[in-house]
Amino acid sequence: MWTREEVKARGKAALNRNYWYAVLTAVVLGICAGGSGGSSAGSSYNNAKNNGADDLANIFTPQIIAIILGVACVAILISIALKIFVFNPIAVGCQRFFILNDSENASLNEIGYGFKNDYMNIVKIMFLKDLYIFLWTLLLIVPGIIKSYEYMLVPYLLAEDSSLSADEIFALSKDMMMGNKMDAFVLQLSFIGWVILTVFTCGILGLFYVNPYIYGTMAAMYLSIKEGLNPTDAYYDPYANTAM
After folding, report:
1. CA distances (Å), 58 to each of 52, 63, 171, 182, in order?
2. What DSSP character marks residue 153?
3. For the chain, where are the alpha helices, taking DSSP H only?
4. Cβ contacts of residue 228 below 8 Å, gap of 6+?
């Protein structure tokens, strides 16, 4: 069985050995995973609340509202398409980088792996993963969280063998995470101190250390689970003779 100390040590060693490439890949993976943003409109509301109601009524006619809603829908569809056809394949390539970087100095060329190897298969499986988690979350929050951990290894499995079918990928991820979901959650939780420090440094610490450290550690966790499938052979291939 793997331990938090073991995989975190592997993640840190990989980061230190190939630092700048790991940082750049983590930035790309963070963008693919989605960022957070904010907006502020409080001051404009306060300035206009006494005399702006009539102006707003004149500006926001039904036609203007329809245009705004139409533009918003188009923007949402474009963002979904980018996620499915661009960001997900890039994310798989980034995970491949961190997998390889565990034992060697990986190249940034690995980021483009998803576009050069079974592209449509990667697109389909990553879309299904997101869809399944979304639907389970709609049902109830807790099942959605459980499914997100059950399918956590899908990008890593694709990064190592993009030719596998959806049934094989989901079955493998489910089997490999059996008994490891809580440990994976605790592993992620163990970075809370680093996340707090990242907030206090306005994201600088996360950019240059915490994010690549976490991504490297999670790749090391995947590799440790894979190696643990057969304690007598650290290079056991989990895909061989797998009954689905």
Report:
1. 10, 11, 57, 55
2. T
3. 4-17, 19-33, 42-48, 53-59, 62-82, 88-101, 113-116, 119-139, 141-150, 154-160, 166-177, 181-189, 192-200, 204-205, 211-227
4. 1, 2
User: Per the structure block, which two tokens stand in for 46?
Assistant: 């306060």
87 phi and psi angles, rounded to 5 deg = -70, -40
Residue type, 79: S
Give the type of residue at 177. Answer: M
Evaluate whether 166 touches 132 at the Cβ level (below 8 Å).
no
pLDDT tens column, 174-217:
999 999 999 999 999 999 999 999 999 999 999 999 999 999 99
Q: Whole-structure pTM over 0.85, yes or no? A: no
* CA-based torsion, 21, 88, 95, 196: positive or negative: positive
How many C-beta neighbours within 10 Å does residue 67 have?
Answer: 11
